[in-house]
Each structure stands twice: as structure tokens, then as C-alpha cells.
Amino acid sequence: MSRPGNKNLLIIIAVLLLTNIGVLAYFLWYKNPSDKQEQHDNRSSNGIADQLQKEVGFTPEQIAQYKQMKEKQRETIRPMYDEMRKAKDSLFRLLKDSIIYDSVTSKAADQIAERQKMLDMQTFTYFRKVRTICTPEQLPKYDSLIQGMFSRMNRPQRRSDSDSTKTDKKN
Q1: Is the pTM of this model over 0.85?
Q2: Is the Cβ–Cβ distance between 108 and 90 less than 8 Å?
Q3: Phi-psi map region of 140: left, alpha, beta (phi>0 left; psi -120 to 50 alpha)
Q4: b/e for 41-73, b at 16 or more Cβ within 10 A?
């Protein structure tokens, strides 16, 4: 026979479990997705231009030049990103095949690598062109800003405190 204490313990555990699930659901789904998108749009729309103005000291004329260069860069790399996506799609479409030869996956990976190289070279060339509109006094600040930006991009992404719950944090 089960003891009355076990029944009470099971009820308490069930209530705690449901409470934990409710709290987890609240933190995962309560935030309005449009708020997150709006924050992202505000940061990325003028992010680098604002940094160039505040940290490097770009003048309004330099900002205008930068924005023209940025628009041209977007037009140039958009098709490159499309080709990269197609190359990756073709690689991952191979997953459904029952027999996959290493030579086929290697060739697909090489195509991705070649496209990534072209993107990286185009990005490097772009930032070199932006560097030409800097004054000699601005160059060290610009170089530092760009180095910092790329070092942050190459770090593994971590969720911000606003996107995570306390259970995600490690002591």
C-alpha cells in the first residue's frame, strides 16, 4: 500500500513541474517579436555609420560618401550571397541521398569555400575603399573600429541576458 505522504509528495512535484513549465513558456514566448525586430533594425540601419561618426569622427560629407559606398557594396554582394546560399542548398540536398560519394560532397564544399573566399575578398576590398575617405588622423581610429568589429563577429554567438533565462546561465 502507498503511504499518504507519497501521494502528497507527488501532488507537490506535479504542481512544481507545471509551474516551471509555465515560467519557461512565459520567458520563451511572451516577448513581442516585433520589439526584437525593431531593436535589430535600429541597431543595423545606421549602426556602422553612427560608429564612424562618433568614434572615428566622420564628417557629414564622409558619411554621405560612406552611404553611397555601402549601397554599391550591397548591390555587389547580394548576388554573391545568393550564390553562396545555392551552393549550400546543393550540399545539404545530398542528405536525402542514400549513397553519397565523398568526391561529390567535397566538390560541393569546395564550391562553398570558393564563394566564401570571393565574399571575403569583396568585403576586404570594400573596407579598404572606405578607408580611403578617412583623414590621416582618422585612420588609426578607423582601423581599430574595423578590427574590433571583425573580432566580435568571429566570436561564438552568445544569447544576451534579455534573450535567456536564469536557468541558461552557468555559475
Answers
A1: no
A2: yes
A3: alpha
A4: eeeeeeeebebbbeebebeeebbebbeebeeeb
